[in-house]
Amino acid sequence: MLKRKFMQNLEDWKKKKNTECLLIKGARQVGKTFIVDWFARKHYASYISVNFEEIPRMRDIFDGDLSSEEIIKKMSLLIPDMRIIEGKTLIFLDEIQACPQARTALKFMAMDSRYDVIASGSPLGIRYKEISSIPVGYETQVEMHSLDFEEFLWAIGFQAESIQYVREYFEALKKVPDTIHSAMMKHLREYMVVGGMPSVVNRFLKTNNFQEVQQEQQKILDSYLDDIAKYANTHEKPKARNCYLSIPKQLVKEYKKFQFSVVEKGSTARKYENSLEWLRDANLIRFCFNVSAPFFPLNAYEKSNQYKVYLNDVGLLVAMYGFDMKNAILDDELKGSVKGGIYESLIVDMLTKKGYDLHYFRNERNSQEIEFLLTKDAKVIPVEVKARNGSTLSLNEILKRSDIEKGIKLISGNVGVMGKKITLPLYMALFL
To answer: What φ, ψ does residue 240 adopt, rounded to 5°?
Structure first.
């Protein structure tokens, strides 16, 4: 079984919760159902799982009266062997977006102390208008992602001690021994082409065959396109699909700001921006917003109409470029702007899974661009990503500001420090 950090979220919720249900958000196939099943069997004497997509008739439970007593009564009629053991029962409402009234009912279920409730959904954001009442104050929301790079390392056999050994070089800002650095870069390139979707990682572990990895990724991509066809409004279906399929093209441009003319020649935001929002609400893409000025707090300077768009998993992006792209990455032979786009996507993958909101800076004259801006202790930290150890004119310029204490340059090379500029191997984004 794949070791997942998200298990700690579940453990913490069980220990600290008062009356709140837990609502797990996230794209399809990131492992939500599997981890809840495992958690339930470990911690509860009775486990009741309801999947509204798999068994549509379960939606009838939430028609009409939404009191806890009525829900349990109806549930017992549809699940004959269910048991409520007071204080030792978990009810799991899976794919809850398919039953909007069940989301409303979380408030009333949360107040019943006989059992705990976890709900899970994939495209939750695209069904919110159908919910008669959001259970504010009665649900704790958390987002689950596919495996991050550290979890991938665990999966391929790394022990926590080995990762801590590399972390010590990060904390000391010391050069990593060449053999270790080469091994870490090799595994990082493997992560780039495999990504973190659990079924893909398991296929890789089982077969060590990148063609089978590509096939598994294509299944997921096809299922995402099927979701667009299933859930999007009729007039949004082709537009959302075209926006999604345009992302690999968007990321090979020199300036990677999302341009609707790439989706369709001559098109504008008026036609397509709702489709892009739909994809974000379905957890299929991530936005990285430009800011008018790189100052804290970054969200106060967001330009809502200027953003870069990335997929929710770097391995899926690489799969969209085709199988030959895997060979180029694994052999470290990528060239041109496509290399920059893929390496940026890698860092987005790593930062997003650590919980960062994403921002970048590009001034009006297009003379200065910083790929990512992070914040810590109310300070802005500029981050540049270079596949090779190239020049960083924009980073050098912003580091002249007295309020910027340090900047980070992520490269395929080793650790180095020059004044306020800290150079780190790409894989050390894991420790930021």
So the answer is: -65, -40
Q: Would you call the peptide bond into 382 cis, given omega within 30 degrees of 0 as the criterion?
A: no
With contact defined as beta carbons under 8 Å apart, do 351 and 308 qualify?
Answer: no
Residue 133 contacts by C-beta under 8 Å, 6 or more apart in sequence? 104, 107
**Entry field: residues in the chain:** 432
CB 25 within 8 A of CB 144: yes
For residues 273 and 88, give the distance between their C-alpha atoms in angstroms, rounded to a whole number: 46
For each of the domains in the chain, give its residue range(s) and CATH number, in order of start. 6-143 (3.40.50.300), 149-431 (no CATH)
Q: Tell me the sheet residues that pair with 424.
A: 410
DSSP state of 175: P
Q: Is 332 left (phi over 0), alpha (psi -120 to 50) or beta?
A: left
The gap from C-alpha 148 to its chain's centroid, in whole angstroms, comes to 9
User: Rounded distance, CA 232 to CA 320, Å?
Assistant: 21
Residue pLDDT tens, the chain, 432 long: 899 999 999 999 999 888 899 999 999 999 999 999 999 999 999 999 999 999 999 999 999 999 999 999 999 999 988 999 999 999 999 999 889 999 999 999 999 999 999 999 886 554 544 555 566 678 999 999 999 999 999 999 999 999 999 999 999 999 999 999 999 999 999 999 999 999 999 999 999 999 999 999 999 999 999 989 888 888 889 999 999 999 999 999 989 999 999 999 988 888 998 899 999 988 999 999 999 999 999 999 999 999 999 999 999 999 999 999 999 999 999 988 899 999 999 999 999 999 999 999 999 887 899 999 999 999 999 999 987 666 789 999 999 999 999 999 999 999 999 999 999 999 999 999
Are 122 and 282 in contact by the 8 Å Cβ rule? The answer is: yes
For residues 394 and 156, the answer to whether their CB atoms sit within 8 Å is no
Q: Which residue has the tokens 């596949």?
A: 387
Q: Phi/psi of residue 66, each to 5°? A: -105, 20
Q: Describe the chain by its helix, strand, coil percentages, rounded to 5.
A: 50, 20, 35
Query: Do 175 and 414 touch, CB atoms closer than 8 A?
Result: yes
In this structure, what token pair is assigned to residue 428?
């050390």
